Amino acid sequence: MSSTPVPLSVDQLRQLASLGERRAHSPLGEPLLLLALGAGDRADRALNDWLRALPAPVVGIGAGDAPFAVACDAVVDDIDAAASLIANVRRHPLAAMVFVQLLRLIEKLPITEALSAESLAYAALQNGPEFHGWRNAHPGDRAAPDEDGPAVVITREEDRLQLALNRPGNRNAMTVEMRDALCEALQLAVSDASIATIEIRARGKCFSTGGDLREFGTAPDPATAHLVRSLALPGRLLAQLASRSTAFVHGACIGSGIEFPAFAGRIVARDDAWFQLPELKYGLIPGAGGCISITRRIGRQRVAWLGLSGLRIDAARALDWGLVDAIAP
């Protein structure tokens, strides 16, 4: 396998599609396809459909308004900008495949069905070799720090409900304790129409670094884990409260630390906030609803870029993309 795959032209792609060849660009071959995008390419619905069915990420190189850009999973300016995507996809081809297939599938699905699809895809990867390889290399024997008080501090002032993530010593990681506390608080808001506004903040240096790695894979089995996500997912409840909710984020917002607040109707970021979806390096995909919540804010291709590259974006880019709605000191 060459160090850098050569982008295919549309004519080369058309020849490949005419042969019905899909194995060459899959986890069994080169696990992604690079496509050279040109403004002069002739649009082809059948070729677009073939690309969307490919069991591998399709990364367009060139202009985002080229005819075939819409069929790509991510679009970058040049081959150098694709380097992090190429490296990550080659290290985790199965997770990358499932990730883009899921994003294609749920693009137009209602939230409830899309969340079910995400959870099932996540469950499949939990039983896959890439996640098991990561787990075996990271047994997670360190205990979380002991911290006083509830995981989520709940304050009500008349018709305003304020929630504060309260595990700063653990960087407000989305542990089982945090998940259950958020579900309890948000269920209260769902059940009480007299609550006009919900504000979500976090104490400490950051909003949340996402799922606690010590708890990854600790469910009895992937099917049971899917059941738990189907019953207790904070984002599902926050989505019901979107018109009443604002999330205020700062510092690191990693994985579920942005997947969850992205369901709020409004996100206000401090200027030190930064955002990242690192799940691919664990052999997984975003599993706290982020394939839905973030996609509905910034679109499928930008979510794919975040997940496949694993790179961070700062508050300014997040605002430009629409991931956050405002930046405040």
From TrEMBL:
Q: Which Gene3D superfamilies match?
A: 2-enoyl-CoA Hydratase, Chain A, domain 1
Q: Which UniProt keywords apply?
A: Isomerase
Please give the superkingdom of this protein's source.
Bacteria
Which InterPro entries does the annotation name?
ClpP/crotonase-like_dom_sf (IPR029045), Enoyl-CoA_hydra/iso (IPR001753)
Q: Name one GO molecular function term.
A: isomerase activity
- Coiled coil where? none
Q: Name one GO biological process term.
A: fatty acid beta-oxidation
Family (UniProt): Belongs to the enoyl-CoA hydratase/isomerase family.
Q: What is this protein called?
A: Enoyl-CoA hydratase/isomerase family protein
Organism in which the protein naturally occurs? Solimonas terrae
